[in-house]
């Protein structure tokens, strides 16, 4: 089987796996315990925090370890909104956010907050000017993802941050960085970001661990209570092996970001060419999108069918965000980009890492051609002809 | 704006006397070490100034690093052009354009002709450059006294410097130019600030930390080590002495004089620090005392405590307010570490209301009643562990063993 679903989850580095096993074996002391073993665990976390903070060029005290991006996004959005309710009840996000962001806002709506869901253009990008129109005196928080997980659109985060802080310096800016870190340059200070979410398994770390950057001075209402861990923002015994592994994966990803980007972009361009060559396929990602995500649709064929046809040839791809791929409605993200229901129901995402080889790439291209050839007679609209 | 060079000025103080050369050399070496992460940078030392040619390295980051160099009074980012009237006019024009001045701004030009063969005098240059810029920039208004923008043009034989920004730097005396002192580093907010203040005055400091395992935790030691590492960012490296204080400290309990324990402890610390100072060739002891802050820092307490040593005790924070101290500790990067909640040995065994007005004779009599006190102090000195910290090294052995590098 050939795995082309890296935007859903990446294969962990071998030495990350080894690190987890070793730390798990040697340091099972509870970091909150006062004895030597507890202190040892606590020191490991401290060192990991330093490594993570260096990768983001922020202070160690600004890093909160979480169980992953879902928790990070929930903590950022609900935690900041509840903490700063006195500033107002208006929130801004986009129509193309990941479900963990989108549904957090829906929940806040039910709790009486007013949410503006910004539209995107045909490339899947938010216009910074739309922020200027939407932002108000009582806007507490704006949350915008860096890279869209379905189509790979890169949002103009720096321009958006600039716009937010110019229109209302008190508005908090959250960025879901899950698909961007390790793939594109990140500069939280320049972007004027207050909160930034990451998840380790998107850059070859383990699942179940992530972090939230919380700018110094910003307060959050904790979502999980019950202990003073992580500066009281995230109760629960710290997962020492995973925290160490996160640090390692993060360091490696940030060190290798440039070479990752150039290797994967080359591959992406080749896949783009193939898709453009195959009649019937419609490409949605483009040269300016994130380097690791290719998105296209096969109008007239439910995405699932093409997915399984490719799978028969040993190629694993995705229909959309893994978190919502079992839903049967057309993708919310694609619809908001202005795609037709037919296109939005037939989307396929290919996502990669830089360990993919030339041979694997050739197999993928071949499988795409063969599958479309096989399916073409069955395409809706062609039946009966 | 891309700057070509940084101009570093020394404090006025060091330009006096026979020590000037030594001072300048010391600052030069310090500048060189803090700029080592910028490989393209070239340095030139000249008449009370250092010129830092950036050669494309980022100015703002270099300035941040240079703000840690003691003895530098101010920094000006400079644009360099040819010593040629046309070029000077064009570059000044470009410079102002890049500044993007929006509103009315008062302005003057201060030209300085260091190279006397340049065809126009300084006075003429003020006029030439000034009138050229006034014509181009409507929002400028000339003002001779205290203008908002004073554009300086320094004409030298090889090149001309154009600048106006003067960034205040840390000032003080060059690193290590005023001898060595032992500093009592507790882990609180004050003592790191005292350390920084002393270093700014040109003292080399070695830190002494008293720990009372098992009454204080290992993490408290880590914290002190982290603090010393931050301080080493200013000094290059810092020696940190860990003194085991448990036995000395416990010898003061059970005498029914709990109110005086803090006084006895402070005196014992000074004695140990004095012995270490003799061993290390230091001529003073520095503390983070601030008058009236706690019971051991009342004037009577300072008096009784201070008599335990013959060395001068320097107290840089003695007249400062807590808020000022906190501000400095934030600026120098020690605050976040200092507020971590680990007990230090001063908070142990201390009475709820320690004596604010201790009696020297009673204290001395108590000390004499502990027969083995000199022996305990000597033993503490002998069992002192010393680590040398630099901004990047790992420090103590236990930590090194614990943190396996290949895990990260």
From TrEMBL, chain A:
<keyword id="KW-0411">Iron-sulfur</keyword>
<comment type="similarity">
    <text>Belongs to the class-V pyridoxal-phosphate-dependent aminotransferase family. NifS/IscS subfamily.</text>
</comment>
<dbReference type="InterPro" id="IPR020578">
    <property type="entry name" value="Aminotrans_V_PyrdxlP_BS"/>
</dbReference>
<dbReference type="InterPro" id="IPR015424">
    <property type="entry name" value="PyrdxlP-dep_Trfase"/>
</dbReference>
<protein>
    <submittedName>
        <fullName>Cysteine desulfurase</fullName>
    </submittedName>
</protein>
<keyword id="KW-0479">Metal-binding</keyword>
<dbReference type="InterPro" id="IPR015421">
    <property type="entry name" value="PyrdxlP-dep_Trfase_major"/>
</dbReference>
<dbReference type="GO" id="GO:0046872">
    <property type="term" value="F:metal ion binding"/>
</dbReference>
<dbReference type="InterPro" id="IPR000192">
    <property type="entry name" value="Aminotrans_V_dom"/>
</dbReference>
<keyword id="KW-0408">Iron</keyword>
<dbReference type="GO" id="GO:0051536">
    <property type="term" value="F:iron-sulfur cluster binding"/>
</dbReference>
<dbReference type="InterPro" id="IPR016454">
    <property type="entry name" value="Cysteine_dSase"/>
</dbReference>
<feature type="domain" description="Aminotransferase class V">
    <location>
        <begin position="3"/>
        <end position="363"/>
    </location>
</feature>
<dbReference type="InterPro" id="IPR015422">
    <property type="entry name" value="PyrdxlP-dep_Trfase_small"/>
</dbReference>
<dbReference type="Pfam" id="PF00266">
    <property type="entry name" value="Aminotran_5"/>
</dbReference>
<dbReference type="GO" id="GO:0031071">
    <property type="term" value="F:cysteine desulfurase activity"/>
</dbReference>
<keyword id="KW-0663">Pyridoxal phosphate</keyword>
From TrEMBL, chain B:
<dbReference type="GO" id="GO:0002937">
    <property type="term" value="P:tRNA 4-thiouridine biosynthesis"/>
</dbReference>
<dbReference type="InterPro" id="IPR049962">
    <property type="entry name" value="THUMP_ThiI"/>
</dbReference>
<feature type="binding site">
    <location>
        <begin position="209"/>
        <end position="210"/>
    </location>
    <ligand>
        <name>ATP</name>
    </ligand>
</feature>
<dbReference type="GO" id="GO:0009229">
    <property type="term" value="P:thiamine diphosphate biosynthetic process"/>
</dbReference>
<feature type="binding site">
    <location>
        <position position="288"/>
    </location>
    <ligand>
        <name>ATP</name>
    </ligand>
</feature>
<dbReference type="GO" id="GO:0000049">
    <property type="term" value="F:tRNA binding"/>
</dbReference>
<dbReference type="InterPro" id="IPR054173">
    <property type="entry name" value="ThiI_fer"/>
</dbReference>
<dbReference type="GO" id="GO:0052837">
    <property type="term" value="P:thiazole biosynthetic process"/>
</dbReference>
<dbReference type="GO" id="GO:0004810">
    <property type="term" value="F:CCA tRNA nucleotidyltransferase activity"/>
</dbReference>
<keyword id="KW-0784">Thiamine biosynthesis</keyword>
<keyword id="KW-0547">Nucleotide-binding</keyword>
<comment type="pathway">
    <text>Cofactor biosynthesis; thiamine diphosphate biosynthesis.</text>
</comment>
<dbReference type="Pfam" id="PF02926">
    <property type="entry name" value="THUMP"/>
</dbReference>
<dbReference type="GO" id="GO:0005524">
    <property type="term" value="F:ATP binding"/>
</dbReference>
<dbReference type="InterPro" id="IPR049961">
    <property type="entry name" value="ThiI_N"/>
</dbReference>
<dbReference type="GO" id="GO:0140741">
    <property type="term" value="F:tRNA-uracil-4 sulfurtransferase activity"/>
</dbReference>
<keyword id="KW-0694">RNA-binding</keyword>
<dbReference type="InterPro" id="IPR014729">
    <property type="entry name" value="Rossmann-like_a/b/a_fold"/>
</dbReference>
<feature type="binding site">
    <location>
        <position position="297"/>
    </location>
    <ligand>
        <name>ATP</name>
    </ligand>
</feature>
<keyword id="KW-0808">Transferase</keyword>
<dbReference type="GO" id="GO:0005829">
    <property type="term" value="C:cytosol"/>
</dbReference>
<feature type="binding site">
    <location>
        <position position="266"/>
    </location>
    <ligand>
        <name>ATP</name>
    </ligand>
</feature>
